[in-house]
Specification:
The structure is a homodimer of 591-residue chains. With 591 residues, chain A is α+β, with helices and mostly antiparallel strands. Chain A has 4 domains: 92 residues, OB fold (Dihydrolipoamide Acetyltransferase, E2P), CATH 2.40.50.140; 161 residues, 2-Layer Sandwich (BirA Bifunctional Protein, domain 2); 123 residues, Gyrase A, domain 2; 110 residues, no CATH class. Chain A has 19 helices and 23 strands. In chain A, the strands form 5 sheets. In chain A, strands 6-9-10-22-21-20-17-11 form an 8-stranded mixed β-sheet, sandwiched between helices. A 5-stranded mixed barrel of chain A has the order 1-2-3-5-4. Chain A has a 5-stranded antiparallel β-sheet with strand order 12-13-16-14-15.
């Protein structure tokens, strides 16, 4: 037996008992006659005491314990004289009678404390040490709890967890697949699933009615800070349901998770159409924790002799309240430059500053006199002390740029309260996006998304322009401006699915080759169905008010898709390639 | 709203209520004035009634419903005149007022009933229809429940579920890896995990203390009926525990699952050493539901002038009770031929038949007289009516052959009671196996398994012969002769791990390249740890008294590793290969 208790278990009521603990040496302090060792495990920290007067040999050994040594100590629980109220075990300590070093440790390359002094790369290489730090350890424990509560809720709602295969078929649509060469089927490849989409639809056809799975998905994309080549989804599908029944179910899940895990009671989630979200916030995932909604200035500003505005498709802006005094000319110049960076790409930034002294300062003062600007402010509710920012140009681009400005100003102005969660359903997305470059439609959600019921006739019979305006029965769950999940009612009719493949530029043969099994399944009594998938990594991060998903993944990869700890990917033996009937062309080309 | 109730919900207490159901047409019976439709979903079957007299149009439409049509019906719950006691909804039926065909169905290629008339290949191709059959649907629901209960138990024991990566590093040791070419790291490959072994050990080093995961694993092996290229494990690891604490924990899990899911209370699991299992049953996974243990005849049979026996390393047998009369000479000849098939490869089968009339018939009567054989029978408890079977030859081979005979006779003699579950821990496996052909040791369990504590000195200092006799602290859970799980105490000391790699034929460089991260982790305070993994697919099958795991996997692959439904693996586009810096050599060679 290595321990009678863990390092977080002992309390004042245990005083006098003999106990055995095992764990890691967090810190050792030599105070002359006494040596104190903080012993750490997943459950907490307990203070060990060694007394030089009582047992010189033992105390001397204790003094030699280094950081992160693994030890086992047996002793008597004592009440502490100087209690530590910040620690659950802070009222007691262990007067150690025997000590056993289970393993030694070299000095760690960085400090294993709340805040570490190690750089990112180093900490990824020594992930096993970084994971000992309580913030990371808590994240992983949090993730485990979130998964358990998710399963508890969905199980309670009659959802069945079904494992779908990992070795599936490559589909050149959408993001890039990871592929896996098949040895038994030479020259052929499996693909790793980007999502279990078609399988969960097949499960609906098979009658499973309510499916879910917490499942790994894979995308071979160039990586950003918040993307990983493998990520986890809460993947769900339901049959015989309307859109609102799906939204209610997963609003229920979200509320349950917030309540159970964070103790937060969320209000009912508002629904907003995609069109409205774009109009009011210039984003399909608006952060509605603060207002600062878009104002359409076009009809007011045009025809006044300012050519830039007169020729602009859109003139939109926001009103930033009470910042006039804080923002000097230099600040505004900096903000303008920030908007002009390539990441945002604004040509400039128009502002109208309503100074506290009643004066007005504006970049467009040459074209619009003070009286006009004053009236404009009054019309749109800009008060003394506010600044109106305006952007103009091509509609879609300008909305995106103004969205960035709005989010930035929301941050700078402290409009976002910590611990505030504002969920929102964004609904009625466009079904298809026209891509000018490739001259074809792309599915906004995915090729299996149904148009809204009332659009089916238009979709089957409409012309090219009609297709651009079709609305999908698709929806996203957005929390605090982050897309947590998305889904749709699916097509369950073979003809409609074929029509959709056709619009998306699939030939009959391609559609049959890639999705013949699904089209076939639709001929044998496919029920109406729909579903949703939540990004599990992101949900973990958002629930903790964090941006990066990496800290919620035990063994993440870096931006080059490398696991720094195990050093993968790596070379493989030529025999392995030979067995797979493969040759790498890389070394031939580069060396 | 598609339904107010599911097809398994309505009872006599609902009579008089208006309800709406949706589901599949199981069968439609036209009885002249009345038409009955059995409507099916995952939850059950409800009978719908259409009355020609009351609504001719509706009834006519009902008559046209084909098998597996998807319909929605609204009507009034009525008490049935002829109740069906075998069905939960058997006391009621729905008098239908309106009918809505949600989707049509072609005639399925096989019957969707308890027993189907479809062949294996056809049913795999139309898996979505096969999964509608209640035996398969129940298997998948069972699997979901088993996973939920497993998680509930382990969560209750403070285990944390941690997701380990799927894209890892190839290790040429053990079974063959599936590999995944990396586009971002040209010429390099990920591998899919054969198990999360090193990651779960790393989690112990990271302080997670109790880890589990229900996780997909991958092996690119030639497939048998009960093997799949992707399979699921309940994977677990614990730190600061002795072997018996691990066994107790997972004996607890197993008992919990049997109790909760099957209502069966299992007795405490006996432990048997590998050596004893081999001696008594010739197998490291003995089926102990019946006795018929091995008898060592060597000292009795040798030196009596029968050359075959005199020169044999081993002479062992079993006593099959009470079958003398049932087994004619022809039956025994057939049994001998069965033993001589290449799958078993016995040279022959010696028997001594103690006939009911007191006479003895034996294949070795020429060498041993009746008096000897009678005394032999008495010594080993063979009674009138029994048959002793004997095999001789090389020790290991002979034990394996006799194990096959024992299992076969157990089956034939009806010694295995349905619903009988006999779990057994097999412990103290050999650490290393000497392979004559490659002239090197192989790890019997895996390279991370610790020798038993008392063997460590011998391992570090012993000679070549010593290594052959080392015992590992490894264990298997066997139920009814099927290996359900296996595990071991792991090495947590860098030097011992290096020594093991050395014995297994790794050069220092190879060990460092492949497992440097683990060796490194052992230098920073690795705690003592050990673990176990259960085969989840197999556990599902065994709990249901079934042999094949395929029926417990929603979308299994066939023996060529193909998914017959989606038709994977498949060709990929040359552009995909180009992006990965790969060329296939297959078509060049074969075409």
């Amino acid at each position: 037996m290595f321990r009678s208790h863990n390092c977080g278990a002992l309390r004042i009521s245990d005083v006098g008992n003999e106990v055995t603990l095992s764990g890691w040496v967090q810190i050792s302090r030599d105070l002359g006659g006494l040596t104190f060792v903080d012993l750490r495990d997943r459950y907490g920290i307990t203070q060990l005491v060694f007394n030089m007067d009582e047992n010189e040999d033992l105390c001397s050994r204790a003094r030699k314990l280094g950081r992160e040594f693994v030890i086992q100590a047996t002793g008597i629980v004592r009440e502490r004289s100087n209690k530590n109220p910040n620690r659950a075990t802070g009222e007691i300590e262990i007067e150690v009678k025997s000590l056993n070093v289970l393993n030694v440790s070299k000095t760690p390359p960085f400090t294993i404390e709340e805040e570490s002094d190690g750089g990112d790369e180093l900490r990824m290489q020594y992930r096993y040490l970084d994971l000992r730090r309580s913030p990371l350890q808590n994240n992983i424990l949090f993730r485990s709890k979130l998964a358990i509560e998710t399963r508890k809720y969905l199980d309670g709602q009659n959802f069945v967890e079904v494992e779908t295969p990992v070795l599936i078929k490559t589909t050149p649509e959408g993001a890039r697949d990871f592929v896996v060469p098949s040895r038994m089927n030479p020259g052929q490849f499996y693909a790793l699933p980007q999502s279990p989409q078609t399988f969960k639809q097949i499960l609906m056809v098979a009658g499973f009615d309510r499916y879910f799975q917490i499942v790994k998905c894979f995308r071979d994309e160039d990586l950003r800070a918040d993307r990983q080549p493998e990520f986890t989804q809460i993947d769900c599908e339901m049959a015989f349901v309307t859109r609102d029944e799906i939204l209610d179910t997963f609003e229920g899940l979200t509320k349950y998770l917030f309540k159970t895990i964070k103790g937060i009671e969320l209000q009912d989630f508002p629904k907003m159409s995609y069109d409205e979200a774009m109009r009011r916030y210039g984003s399909d995932k608006p952060d509605v924790r603060f207002d600062m909604e878009f104002i359409d200035f076009a009809s007011d500003m045009k025809g006044k002799g300012f050519g830039v505005f007169d020729n602009a498709e859109a003139i939109i802006g926001i009103c930033a309240e009470g910042i006039a005094e804080k923002y000097s000319n230099k600040d505004l110049k900096n903000l303008t430059e920030w908007m002009q960076r390539p990441q945002i790409g604004a040509k400039g930034l128009v502002y109208i500053k309503y100074n506290e002294d009643g004066s007005i300062k504006s970049t467009i003062g040459k074209f619009y006199d003070d009286a006009f600007l004053k009236a404009l402010g009054e019309k749109f509710g800009a008060k003394t002390g506010d600044i109106i920012f305006m952007l103009s140009g091509e509609e879609e681009k300008t909305r995106k740029q103004l969205n960035e400005l709005r989010l930035e100003m929301g941050q700078r102005m402290g409009l976002i309260k910590e611990g505030d969660f504002k969920p929102l359903w964004v609904v009625d997305f466009p079904l298809l996006e026209w891509d000018e470059e490739s001259e074809r439609f792309h599915a906004m959600h995915h090729p299996f998304t149904s148009p809204k019921q009332e659009e089916i006739g238009r979709m089957l019979n409409g012309d090219h322009e009609t297709m651009k305006s079709l609305k999908a029965d698709a929806y996203d769950l957005v929390i605090n401006g982050v897309e947590i999940g998305g889904g749709s009612i699916r097509i369950h009719d073979r003809d409609l699915q074929s029509k959709n493949f056709d619009l998306l530029g699939f030939s009959k043969e391609e559609a049959e080759k890639q999705f013949g099994f699904l089209l076939g399944a639709f001929e044998y009594g496919a029920p109406p169905h729909g579903g949703i998938a939540f990004g599990f990594d992101r949900l973990c991060a958002v629930l903790n008010g964090k941006n990066s998903i990496r800290d919620f993944i035990a063994f993440p990869k870096n931006n080059q898709g490398r696991d720094m700890m195990i050093d993968a990917p790596s070379d493989i033996h030529q025999e392995q390639l030979d067995e797979l009937y493969l040759d790498t062309t890389y070394s031939k080309e580069e060396n």
